[in-house]
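Format notes (please read before filing issues)

Several people have asked whether sequences and structure tokens are stored in separate files. They are not. Every record keeps both together, in the order shown below: the sequence lines, then the token lines. Line labels are part of the format and must not be stripped during preprocessing.
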Amino acid sequence: MSLIVDALNLLHVWSSGPVGALAVELEALAERIGRSRYAGRRVRLVCDGHGPAGEAGAVPLRRIRGAEVLFAGLQGEDADAVIERLILADHAPRRLLVVSSDRRILKAARRRRAATMTSQGFAAQLSADAARGPAESARPPFAEEVPLDIASTAFWMRELGFGEPPTPHPAPRPRPDPARTPPPINAPGGGPVAPAPPPPRPEPRPELADLLRALGGAIRPEDLDMQRWLEHTPDIPAREPRPAADGTDRARRRGRNRPGS
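Then the structure lines:
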């Protein structure tokens, strides 16, 4: 969520007295917002006038304490007109919070279904956050962790209006290095290690064991072990294809099979 703040409207509520040096007041306001529940959000402070005057005339303050400051007079407009234009140009107005007590600005924000808050309500939030202190801030606990994990990155991308993060691709599995492959373990005498004994054969099921006992030992359980048969049976050579019989051979076989032949 990003913020558009009617800065002078808010300063008249937030300051204890009349607005003094504008640059000082804006810096204090931006610092207070940066320590509140809105820390890390994009903040645009819109002011009337041309800003503090420098040696070469009007000097706009582009950024103060992480906040963007826009002086409407440099564009020949007032702050209300600039705020209305910013609301209209925002590509995600439902993730926008507009802070002002001006009815014209609030009406423009509601037309685009942006969130709104009066300057009095926003100032109360800043005061409450300052009273809690940074240890009790409303920021998520992972906000200070760097680097962020995938879930935290997705949270901040959605909050800041960047949409859903791209789906991460799994890292390729490293190939084994033959140079680092451990050599085979040898027996104490230097020869190769004897192969491990085969695993014990499972016992036959109870119903099969009862059937074998009923046969009086004619068939032993190991006779049913197909692995044993495969290990002790020699390879059977493939049968050669029989030659195709012609018509004479088929007729001779039919005559041989007739009665009385």
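For reference, the curators noted about this record: The longest strand covers residues 2-6. The longest helix spans residues 119-132.
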